[in-house]
Amino acid sequence: MISKKLDHLKDKNILITGASKGIGRSLAINLSKHKANVILLARNEDLLDTLYDEIKEKYNTNPMIIGCDLSRFEEDKAQEIANVVSKNYKCLDALINNASILKKMSSVNDYDLKSWKKVLNVNLTSAFLLSKYLMPLMMDSKLPRIIFTSSGVANKGKAYWGAYSVTKAGIKNLSEILNDELDSLTNFKVFSFNPKETRTEMRALAYPAENPSSVKAPDELINYYLWMLSERSTSSSKTHINFGDEI
Questions:
Q1: Is residue 225 among the annotated active site residues?
Q2: pLDDT value of position 34
Q3: Burial tier of 60 (Cβ tally within 10 Å: 0-12, 13-18, 19+)
Q4: What is the DSSP string of 33-63?
Q5: Does residue 38 carry a pLDDT above 70?
Q6: I want to staple 167 with a disulfide (CB 3.0 to 4.6 A). Which of 32, 124, 176, 215 is the partner?
Q7: How far is CA 104 from CA 113, 141, 161, 206, in A?
C-alpha cells in the first residue's frame, strides 16, 4: 500500500466530475488533504460552493468550481472547460471521470428513451468529451492520469440495470482504448476503478432495503486513488482496479 505522506500530491491539479456528493466529494476533500488543487465539477453549485469554502478554510490549496449539467453536455462546453482550466493552471495532472446517474431500474421494454439518453450523456458521453478535450492539457504533467469510475455491471449486464450497465461497459472499453492509444507515453496511465459496494445516494436508490451502515463509506476508497495517482502505478500492468485488489 502506498505511503500516506500528506505532500504526495502537492500542487497537482486534478479535475473531479460529480464532485458535490458521494465518492466525488470524498475525493475532493481527501485529495485536498494531500495538498492537491481540485477542480470541482458538478451540477449543484450550492453544494460546490459549500465544498469549496470547506477546502479553502482547511487546506489552503487552490481549488476551482465548474458548474455544469452533464446531462446536456456538448462539445462546445468541453472546449470551454478546457479553456478555463488552461487559463487557471499551468497543466492538468489528472482527470477523474466519476459522475454517474442511475436514473431508473426497469426492464428494457419499459425503459424510456429520454432516461436512456440522459444516463448515456452523464455517464459516458461526457467522460469521452472531457477526456478528449483535457488530454492536451495533461501532456506537460509528469504523471498524467485519467481515472474512470467503473462498476461490477461493466463486466456482465444484469437485468433491470439498463442504461447504467451499458454505460459502465462503455467506460471499461473507453479506458482500454485510451490505454492502447497512449501506450507510447510511458508515464500516461488510464485506469478504471470499481469501488464495489459504497455508501452513496445511488447505492441507496439501487438497493432501498439495504442498511447503509452495512457498506463502506467513500473515504475508504482513497488509498486506491492515491496509488493510481502515484509514480508506483506507472510500472503496473493493471489498468482495471477493484476495491480489495492488492496494489
A1: no
A2: 96
A3: exposed
A4: HTT-EEEEEES-HHHHHHHHHHHHHHH----
A5: yes
A6: 124
A7: 12, 39, 8, 8
Q: How many residues does the chain have?
A: 247
How far does CA 97 lie from the centroid of its chain?
Answer: 3
Strand partners, 64: 39
Nearest to 102, CA basis, from 159, 167, 19, 23 = 167
Read off the pLDDT band of 5 (50, 70, 90): low
The three grid cell numbers given for residue 76, joined into one nine-digit string? 462546445
Cβ-based neighbour number of residue 209 at 10 Å? 5
How far apart (Å, rounded) are the C-alpha atoms in residues 193 and 137? 22
Burial category of 240 from C-beta neighbours within 10 Å (exposed 0-12, middle 13-18, buried 19 and up): middle
Residue type, 128: F
Catalytic residue among 164, 207, 224, 225: 164
How far apart are alpha carbons 131 and 153 in whole angstroms?
A: 22
**pTM of the entire predicted model:** 0.94
Give every CB contact of residue 109 below 8 A, 6+ residues apart in sequence: none
pLDDT, position 205 = 82
| Sole residue written with cell 488530454 | 135
Residue 67: beta bridge partners? 42
How is residue 101 written as a grid cell?
446517474
pLDDT digits (tens, 9 = 90+) for 78-134: 999 999 999 999 999 999 999 999 988 999 999 999 999 999 999 999 999 999 999
Residue 33: CB atoms within 10 Å: 17
Q: How far is CA 95 from each of CA 24, 109, 155, rounded to the nearest angstrom?
A: 12, 35, 23
